[in-house]
Design a protein that fits this description.
Chain B: Keywords: Cell membrane, Membrane, Transmembrane, Transmembrane helix. The complex is a heterodimer of chains A (about 325) and B (about 350). By secondary structure, chain A is an alpha/beta fold. Chain A contains twelve helices and twelve strands. In chain B, helix 3 packs across helix 12 and helix 4 packs across helix 11. Classes of the chains: A alpha/beta (about 325), B mainly alpha (about 350). At the A-B interface, strand 7, helix 8 and helix 9 of A face strand 2, helix 2 and helix 13 of B.
């Protein structure tokens, strides 16, 4: 890798023509391949950069902060125009961000934020987890339109911020609706297998016919739960309404098949808004807001989910 | 003279009592716990769930018991599950039949087991270190196979292994019960079990006595790998997809715990697969208590830890000795057949 980088650098130095051809070079320090969503984020970031004629230098940190810090130092040494950073943890970034600032290289945070003074980075592009939960809750409240509904909830990994915020958001979304009640809430660890297991126990503990809706903190758990509901002889999507978050391809497929009712997208396209902000900043110094919120789009049966599935399935989810 | 049946019963009595208590806890929380009906062509009930959801750990603990009996440990079983699931899924996605996929997964698991066995038996690396290598690297291999995403499949035959039923009984239950019975018969009806115990008690002297400990050690890790592969296929088939990041995550710890709850010593020697299987069911019953209790998930691990701590404390030698002393010191029960002969009998058993 180092050899490759050195070779690349020397080629760039030796041929000033090539340097001018790529008008912008951006370094992207990605966390690693922790989930399908992250793989999709990497794919989309590459696509976004390519479509804008930006040269993207990609560094996979394999879930280690020290690799990310090394990568950022490497980017600074190579003199990139800007750095995209998906931070693996929130703390410990001050020093390296300071170095980037001294080198006058703007840093944009993707999908997670850091505990560092705001002037050390240009902006952060993230989704609002609470808002996602709220959209799910509001959708269900509207769907039930005053009818009584006993809801079961599959939470994410206990104590993780998506689990806390998506729960909070959903509760805000259904607040004031006396007909909606969360009767059981248990963690499914964000996985299909656990989603299925916990749904099985919900179906037995509550009795399948008394549950009217399922809210899962991510699509994977919902997909697992769908199988449990089918095995119990019920119709997912009809007997039990299902709403989840993330909008992974399999969720679109489930909605297209009528087995799921709604999903809220956590877009893998964090790079689009980030590059927009960067281009504006580098062109004429427009300071973006410190936080750019991505859209949390709601997909229901009204959308063409089959088409979205075809579009998304090759992103690496 | 007590026959072998009563000896087995005495060996697994603590596990049976604990299992009964765990199931009783379930009934206290959820009175309909034992209710089983026939729905959608399958047996449907909480007890069935316990047996079904306990399948992966039950399968793992068959191999793990044998490994631990040789004074070893296999930390890699969780990741071997992920590898086997990924192999099976990628095979059916490429268009092969479920039989080929299952064989390929078993082959992958067998190779992982062989690798561990060679590291331990030939290179003489400490088992905990030797199997740690695969525990860490295996998940990476699985991720390479699935390219980091959940590899979904629609092959009915493969799905049947995890989510299907035979005469209404979920397939995983039949698989682990059958495999458990085969393993128990094999180690107890032949000298195999005794040879494995001999290695665990004193490898050098067992080798001097003519036991080919190297081959046996490799075989034991091989069996553990095969069990893990089968568990991995079941877990993948259950969700119709291979989830390399999460399949079998931390299950090696549950398997070791099942073996320990089964009263097997981590220092090797005497073992009981039956008791380990009961241990696996005890763990699953505790999981069931947690799920049925309806308490917030923040309590899950605390409840599990407390219950398991209680089980281990009850089983600890000190408490056992204390109970024995209390019984001996208390009002003398008239004829004391129990206390007086337990010790000599135990010794006799140990000598067997």
């Amino acid at each position: 890798m180092t050899l490759k980088a050195t070779l690349l650098a020397s080629v760039l130095v030796l041929s000033p023509g090539a340097l001018l051809a790529a008008d912008m070079t951006i370094g992207f320090s990605q966390i690693g391949s922790e989930s399908g969503w992250r793989a999709a984020e990497t794919t989309v970031t590459r696509q976004e950069a390519e479509s804008r004629g930006i040269e993207l230098k990609f560094a996979d940190a394999q879930q280690k902060q020290e690799n990310q810090i090394k990568a950022i130092r490497g980017f600074i040494a190579q003199g990139v125009d800007a750095i995209l950073l998906a931070p693996v943890v929130a703390t410990g970034w001050d020093e390296v961000l300071e170095e980037a600032k001294d080198a006058e290289i703007p840093v944009v945070l993707l999908d997670r934020t850091v505990d560092a003074p705001e002037d050390l980075y240009l902006t952060a592009v993230t989704s609002d987890l609470v808002h996602e939960g709220r959209v799910a809750g509001e959708w269900l409240a509207e769907e039930m339109a005053g009818e009584d509904c006993r809801i079961v909830e599959l939470q994410g990994t206990t104590g993780s911020s998506p689990a806390i915020d998506r729960k909070k958001g959903f509760e805000e979304g259904i607040a004031g609706q006396d007909n909606l009640e969360i009767v059981r809430s248990q963690t499914g660890d964000f996985t299909r297998a656990q989603g299925k297991v916990v749904m099985e126990s919900f179906l037995k503990a509550e009795g399948g016919d008394t549950i009217c809706a399922l809210y899962a903190h991510n699509d994977d758990m919902a997909v697992g739960a769908i199988q449990a509901i089918k095995e119990a002889g019920l119709k997912p999507g009809e007997d039990i309404k299902i709403v989840a978050i993330d909008a992974v391809p399999d969720a679109h497929l489930a909605i297209a098949n009528g087995e799921m009712n709604a999903t809220i997208e956590l877009t893998p396209n964090m790079a689009g808004p980030a590059l927009d902000a960067l281009e504006a900043y580098l062109a004429n110094g427009t300071e973006p807001a410190k936080w750019i919120q991505t859209e949390s789009k709601l997909y229901t049966a009204a959308d063409d989910n089959q088409a979205v599935y075809e579009e998304k399935k090759n992103l690496g989810y | 003279m007590p026959g072998p049946k009563s000896a087995i019963l005495r060996r697994i009595a603590p596990q049976l009592v604990i299992l009964a208590i765990a199931l009783l806890l379930n009934v206290l929380i959820f009175p309909d716990f034992f209710h089983i009906d026939f729905r959608n062509g399958r047996l449907f009930g909480n007890l069935i769930d316990v047996l079904n959801r306990g399948a992966p750990v039950a399968l793992l603990c068959i191999g793990m018991t044998l490994v631990i009996a040789t004074r070893g440990i296999d930390l890699s079983v969780g990741t071997v599950m992920a590898v086997a699931g990924a192999v099976a899924a990628s095979m059916v996605v490429e268009g092969h039949g479920w039989g080929t996929a299952l064989l390929a997964a078993l082959l992958a698991g067998g190779m992982c087991g062989l690798w561990n066995g060679v590291l331990v038996a030939v290179l003489r690396i400490q088992p905990i270190v030797a199997t740690l290598v695969l525990m860490v690297a295996g998940r990476g291999i699985a991720q390479l196979i699935t390219e980091g995403r959940i590899l979904t499949f629609m092959n009915e035959g493969l799905i049947h292994l995890g989510a299907g039923t035979v005469l209404g009984m979920p397939t995983p239950i039949l698989i682990w019960v059958t495999l458990g019975a085969v393993a128990i018969t094999l180690v107890r009806r032949t000298a195999l079990g005794m040879l494995i115990e001999a290695i665990g008690i004193n490898e050098r002297s067992s080798r001097l006595a003519g036991i080919n400990s190297r081959v046996l050690l490799i075989c034991v890790y091989l069996v553990s790998g095969l069990c893990a592969a089968l568990a991995g296929v079941i877990v993948a088939a259950d969700i119709k997809g291979a989830d390399a990041n999460n399949a079998g995550l931390w299950l090696e710890l549950d398997a070791i715990l099942a073996v320990v709850i089964g009263g097997n010593s981590l220092l090797g020697g005497r073992f009981s697969i039956l008791a380990s299987l009961l241990g696996a069911m005890i763990i699953q019953s505790i999981n069931s208590v947690i799920l049925l209790s309806g308490l917030p998930p923040e309590f899950n691990l605390v409840i599990k830890a407390l219950l398991i701590l209680a089980i281990l404390v009850i089983q600890s030698p000190r408490i056992g000795y204390l109970l024995y002393m209390l019984r001996a010191a208390g009002p003398q029960p008239q004829p004391r057949p129990g206390t007086a002969d337990t010790l000599p009998k135990r010794k006799k058993e140990a000598a067997r």
